[in-house]
Amino acid sequence: MASSVRQPRARITSFGFTIVELAIVVVVVGLLAGLTGTQYLQYVEKARVARAIAEIASLAEAIGSGQALARWGPPPDSLAEYGLGAPIDPWGTPYRYLRIQGVFSVTERNPDALPPVAAGARSVPDKPRKDRFFKPINTDFDLYSSGPDCDSRDSLEHDDSFDDVVRGLNGRFVGLAENF
Question: Which pTM value belongs to this model?
């Protein structure tokens, strides 16, 4: 009788990952990428808003100093009159400018009295911007960026205007329209 001798089994070892382990790693990496990507985009948008605020304040200062040189006359009809050209906002659209002083009265608006540079130009607003009480936010000139959606309306209460970066109270406020 032959004795049965058990042969030792070869130990099989695996150095790979199971599908469950790989799935867990993929989910964790995806969550981290999603969270940091969203935060990065928010940071970029805040930086663009800060840049627009600084540029609007700088442009308004240049217009103000130009008015002082002209002995406090009315603001220019366009930014080009003071050599400012057509500056572009951080979202790639031109800043919008409208002279109010000497063109619009506080009580009545006459669209036929628009300066020639504003008549018929799509990138130039045709009415002064208004707050939630439908009062003009400036009496000298409007200067603003239409924001990331590149769209705005004459009232700051309109949804398209919430993301605009505006100059208000004749320069005492420069910031997001939703904060005005």
Answer: 0.70
